[in-house]
Amino acid sequence: MRVIILQNIKGLGQMGDVKIVADGYARNFLFPKKIAKLATDAALKEVDALKKKREASQNLETENVVKLAEQLKDAVLEFTRKATKTGKIYSAVTKEDIAEALTKQFSTGGGPASGWKVEPNSVNLEGHEGGHIKQLGEHIVKIELAPDVTAEVKVKVSQE
Question: Which parts of the sequence belong to the Ribosomal protein L9 domain (predicted)?
Fold first, then answer.
């Protein structure tokens, strides 16, 4: 049976894909859970129109993400923490802290970042102990804005 996938499903396909699946799988699993619908001529035309519309908006979104990456290149996030004499901080700077600071700094005002919210899982603290910044000083953090667009942000941690 030919079906149109309505959601991105790992192992099955992306939203809008036309797949051939077993009749029982479609009737008993995909259709009741509204994961797929029968691929009729009208449904196929509707999916093509949606794909074109989504592609156009995705191109615009990609342009905004690239502009945002340019803005983030010069960004410096500053945090103050209590620390030991050796420079180890008591309360680590986490992905959540960085995401919140970026959201506050860049989502207000106009431009490509207007209304932009950083998700903590898009912050890459690779190379830092335990995925947290635990030392005073300057650190470079990578932010994944899109699957193919990454920006680097400078994080400065100073003593309280």
Answer: 13-40
* SS3 letters across 37-95: EECCHHHHHHHHHHHHHHHHHHHHHHHHHHHHHHHHHCCEEEEEECECCCCEEEEEECH
For residue range 138-148, list pLDDT tens digits in order: 999 998 887 78
Domains contained in the chain, CATH given: 2-62 (3.40.5.10), 66-159 (3.10.430.100)
Please enumerate in sequence order all residues whose Cβ is within 8 A of that of 38, keeping only pairs 6 or more positions apart, or say none. Answer: 1, 2, 3, 4, 26, 31
- The model's pTM is 0.60
100: part of which helix (H) or strand (E)?
helix 95-107
Weakest mean pLDDT among 23-27, 41-45, 48-52, 153-157: 48-52
Residue 50: what residue type?
L
